[in-house]
Structure prediction request, 1232 residues.
Amino acid sequence: MKSKVINKPLEARKASPLLVSLSAVFLGIIAGAILIALIGKNPIAGFDRILFGALSNVRRIGNTLGMSTQLILIGLSVAFAFKTGLFNIGASGQMLMGGITGSILAFYLPLGMPRPIYLLIIIVASALVGALWGFISGFLKAKFNVHEVVSTIMLNWTAYWLVYDWIQRFIVDPTIVVKSKPIETVHTLRADWLTDLTKFSTLNYGFFLAIIACIVIWFILDKTNLGFRLKAVGSNRFCAEYAGIKVNRSIMISMAVAGALAGLAGLTYYCGYSNIMEMGKMPNEGFDGIAVALLGNCSPVGVFFSAVFFGILKMGRGSLAATGIPTEIADTIIATIIYFTATNVILANFWNGIFKRNFEKKEEAISLALESEGRSVDIQSLSKDERKALIKKGMPMLKEKKAEEKEAK
Amino acid sequence: MEIWSVITSIIPAAIAYTMPLLMGALGGLYSERSGVTNLCIEGLMLTGCFASATVTFLMQSAGFNYTLAIAMGILAAMLAGALLSLLHAIAAINLKSNQVISGTAINMLATALTLFLAQTITGSGNVTVLRGIVRQDIPILSKIPVIGPLLFTRTYWTTWICLLIWAVSFFLLYKTSFGLRLRACGEHPSAVASAGINVHKMRYIGVLLSGLLSGLGGACILATYAGEYNSTSGINGLGFLAIAALIFGQWKPLGILASTFFFGICMTIANMGRVIPVFQGIPTGYLGLFPYVATLIALVLSSKKSAAPIASGEPF
Amino acid sequence: MSHVIEMIGIRKEFPGIVANDDITLQVEEGEIHAILGENGAGKSTLMSILFGLYHADRGVIKVRGKEVHINSPNDAFDLGIGMVHQHFQLVHNFTVAENIILGKEGGFVYDIKSASKKIKEISDRYGLSIDPDMIIEEITVGMQQRVEILKMLYRDADILIFDEPTAVLTPQEIDELMQIMRNLAKEGKSIILITHKLDEIKAVAERCTIIRRGKLIDVVDVKSTSAEKMAALMVGRPVNFKVDKKEAHPTGVVLDIRNLNVMNNKNVLGVKDFSLSIEGGEIVGIAGVDGNGQSELVEAISGLRKVESGSIFFKGKDITHSSIEDRNEMGLGHIPEDRQKRGLILSAPLSTNFVIKEFYKEPYSKNGILNSEAIEEYGQRIIDKFDVRSGEGIHSLAGKLSGGNQQKAIIGREIEADPELLIAVQPTRGLDVGAIEFIHNEIVKERDRGKAVLLVSFELDEIFNLSDRIAVMNAGRLIDIVNTKDTDEHAVGLMMAGIKKEERSEV
Prediction:
């Protein structure tokens, strides 16, 4: 059944999330350009190098998608938690825990085992450990009301030091000491056909895992009881509680799922993209994922595209060296974009203001045209085509009227 | 006596670790008491650390007096912290944005921007000062038995400034009309407005003070134990420890003095554990995670009675 | 006599509505002047303009004959205007004295002792009996209101605005307040009383300005105008505030509460040894001043709050520790006290809000997967049946509806689920007369269908209008249960203050 819309009133357009996101991107790029100009370099050349570095050949495109893989998964993780009203800034820690799980298994599982079974084991294991790490924050929030932002940060550093210890203990490369031994290719997510196709890029099965995750998360959020519950808790936990939804359980589930997604990101990063773990390194991707989620308006499709966008920025900046622009410009742009997404009120107001003025102008044109025809009808009752015709007729009249008013002054 | 030597080596170091945390937490206190949730203490402290490192480094290399350079670095840090906090104030107060997201954005901006500038200025991700503050014994007081060796031996002068700021804050918050109004803004802003006071102005002051003090905290990290701005480790989540200390200290000056000192001890154990005989044999990784796990436990313990300002995080 | 306040041709527009449309108000010195209007008629907006919280789009304000511009409450204070707000503007963890001096501390480092002394003096002069050192959250609502009055007097205000001051008081406290107002007027203060209650106006006011939908309707002399006349002017048609209902036919116990003890947010007992049973086919009203354990009681019955001891039986089954979901499934309907906080997800469409309790049941969901067609069909049914008006039907976001339609949506959802027990808390708060009549009728209809109804209201009129029996609560205890037809407002008022019938006869 297509539900009937009762007398939807005619009103000015409202800025869509997409328009707001694109505006934030635009402003972020402008801010980056200003910064580049301030240190005496050419912004255009800079952005040209970024695009070149990210997209100029098959291998670079493959690398960009390889980079985007973890951003998609982290972005989904943050977005999923956000739908339940939780702010997961602990993706870095969850990612480390998922990554170390995958890495340790990669070294200790026999090389000869069937690949599908092996892949299944590491995927499930890293997702589970990531989920556990996320669940701790959810548990602390649900049972002890510990703010998840603080607890996830503490767990990030706890994971950082645990991984520090475990790399040393289980998988250290004795010749380098601060890194793990590289993982054998058959025990990573790399696939020969992808490697061949993209001329030895970092693109791996993780990318498909990320796409599947997007679809699954979309389905859960939009089509299932679980998604209904989690979103209800996220939009108004008091109403959800009143309606009989178990709020604490939802918080724990949501953080666990978010943790699982970040754990998978860790797997794709450390056992697919880099294939090595370093001691004492907090992965930046955990924070970039926040930008991905916010820019993507927390929808799986949005997350996918904004992750690819950030993938381009992060991959392309490697080619900046020749221009003398510090590569951190990319992170600065990302941070600026989040600030503008956070303060999206300004952007929305800006566009709504324009739409409103435009709408009022059209309304005035219509009434002028109606006046000239000697009709008096409620604008709300006109059909779309009639309105179009009237606007066309009324616009010149409006211009004339405005000009007259100016002269009169 | 072995325990005594452990204590005399831990406490002075713990005091040094406490001061940046205390300033960050006190900054958070001003902001939250005025009604603005401030999760960007980390970014503000990092910016302070960077700004003081840069100014001190440039002045020391240019041949200025080392102490003067450090003092100017501290002022620069406070100014930089205040400037960055202004972004949070605009987002939170005027634009009524989600304060958690705005705070996170500012943390990321601080990380990226300081690194960007460090790259431009020194060509590497680090800015190292030539010399930090020289530790000094306080005459006479350091001779007092027990307290002397613990509190007045080998101290940094910034420690005394921080403690003075803490004491002044205590007075400001509880004895002056400014403090009364600020605290009321965090509890019931419309009551404040109906008494004819500009709530937005009070909140701006609260957030700016948090920027100034966090900047100072960042400068203390640099001038005392760190000696460099390091882009890879940043400030290791100290800003978040400061927020945890604020919660653990129940949003009260005396409480945060105690809780930051507790976290200071934890940080000392984490960083100096290897050279303290009692903790030898514990792997570095486990010593490292100790302060963070201790924080989580502290938060769980303080969860039952939360004294958070009611209107903190609520736009007005 | 001269006009101490004149507001001439005031207009104030908010996005979408004209709150004040060319309103004129003239108050004479030393009089008690009432402003009468329904909820949402624009009374509070007008007073906020006078107090400097809003700025009028058009119009002139004169104080003591001189044209003034009031841009902030400070300007109002300087002109001697003070306001007792409907929602008290008090910081809960500050002392009385701290609240009173806030904004007028008299120096950067303030002297709380001398301020307390001055406060004590003013309190004694007007018989307000307030201790300046008490913490706000530890004093009664009536006392809090007197702190608000003290706040104005401390600032030497002589034009006092009272915005709906009796909403939270017992009948006896209302009498006391009326006496305080008369005293103040006798001392030469001019008083503006904003209200929608006619008997209060009859009791104290001399003249009354009536406002309807943002427009000035009339200014009447209170003594020579009947209450019925004023009511008709306020609503725009003759109204009968009595609800037509037939004799109740109780059908047996549905809800049985035995010796219930429940903690409140401060972790002390908010409900104490409370027993009550409600039968199908009757409406039991709980009378009491806000904050006497009603919320805790309702939350305990609906499962939102843990029960300390005692038990709750619903349809003969012990539900003391059942989950909220189980209670909902057994047929417990609940119209919550705060419709925007608990009752609705404002950012979600109506269709979601309508199935918020039933989304997981067939036909709305099968094997864990939602069926949006069935959900939308159900939503359309509720909209049609309960006349919920919104811009885009079931797709409208709940937050975009007017207060009355939001409440209709909640009531539609609860009644459509066909509950055995309907708990209605403050079901008509803030609504206009039309919506109130609709909702009262729906509640009576539920009773006539044999359902049990538990009504909690702080409006004594509403309790008397709807209830078959009245249970009076004070400080968490049940004072007494009486048949509505065997009692009156005075008797219930005394019980609301905690005085029982037997005790009264002893006095």
Chain C has a mean pLDDT of 91.
